[in-house]
Amino acid sequence: MATAYSYAASRSSARTTPQDKNRTSGWRLAGFASLFVPITAAQMPLAVHLPAIYAQQFGLSLAVIGAIFLGERLWGAVADPLIGALSDRTHGRFGRRRPWIVAGAALFGVSGAALFFPASSLVSPLYLTASLFLFYLGWSMVQIPYLAWSGELDSGYHGRTRIATFQTVAGSASLLVVLILPTIIDQINPEDGALKLAAMGSVVLVSLIVSLAVTLRSQAEAPAAPSTSARLSFRQTLGALFGHPLLRRVLLSDFAVTTGQSIRSALIVLFVTHYMGLPHWASGLFLFQFVFGIAAAPIWAQIGYRIGKHRAAVAGELAQAAINVGLLLVVPGQIGLLLALTLAQGLTQGSGNLMLRSMVADIADEHRLRTGEDRTALFFSAFSLSTKAGMAAAVGIALPLVGWLGFDPRVASNTTEALHGLLAVFALGPAVAHLLSAWLIHGFPLDEAAHTEIRRALDERDHAAQPAE
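Request: output the structure for the sequence above.
Response:
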């Protein structure tokens, strides 16, 4: 059977455009994308604030908290592919994706209330473990089928970029809000960790209730495409995920992107406070970057429309690598160049994530044409794993490395060598990761012409498979 690789000669195929007359209206697509608000809003509190608050406010040790978060990552490595595979095999009057999203949202909301609004008398390692594991399970039950539904909403090469752009804007806006709230509370009562946790949790839970209703009403699920979707063992599931050469390239590229971004996030406060000597700028710079990050997605979508997804991803990654190398020129105490580079970082933020997420549905189309199996949600579950792995790797690499180089955040004055070690990791760690991501996705064969041919072949086969009236 024909595969994506056989379409390389089809460069003269009719060009698809993001201005397709049948595309979903902007308002309806904005409603559909709104579910990305609670999904993304939960990332920052869990990655940055929650561990410190549970340690300082509720007395859990950092070692225990770290072990609980590590255990969740291992749990997610099993649960996420299972959710994807089960969603692909779900059939019923309510569709394949909606039942999972609704059930996951209920679990996400209840466990989120326990996680963000804990009673001091109840908090213990077991309490955090149970609420965190259930919260992430609900999160995956929402996110993975929802991303698969996103890929099925529009079968066009550029249409998928458009959907991912709306979602990225919604996610960036939600991150901006959850960054602003702790900053405001720091000016009022910086010692009240429970208030910060409750404020951020309120954003997550209120937006979940509103966006769930809006998203489910905004779009109808397309009928499931003809597919064998045979039941796979766990070993076969991993083989389907990591044995596909195109998906493997995208996952490795996403892992590199996320690792680079997470190294920057993990070290930015330490860098601004200790190397720059400007602790009052630490939260503000992070916020400054995300303000411009909201504008980044539409800019990169237009670039993707013109030069293709993988070329836009490469361009964005090369730009981010150059920006991070530029940090080596920053002088302590002088904010001007750092502000300029932070602005540029915001405008390139998410370029790779946006394009790579849009490419996963294209790969699922290629896989279905070649094998007859629809594994869309399963493929998106792997994308979730690469993102989580990148975030974990960044913390596991960056923090021990700067410590090995002599930097100690607990002392008021580090040596010059230690501060230069912090600078090197903060600048060159992300730069190397973004260069690796660009190299992995360079020359990706599944471009617009190839995908157009794949969709034509799928549409013809699906039409032929329909029973005669």
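Residues 116 and 202 are 8 Å apart (CA to CA).
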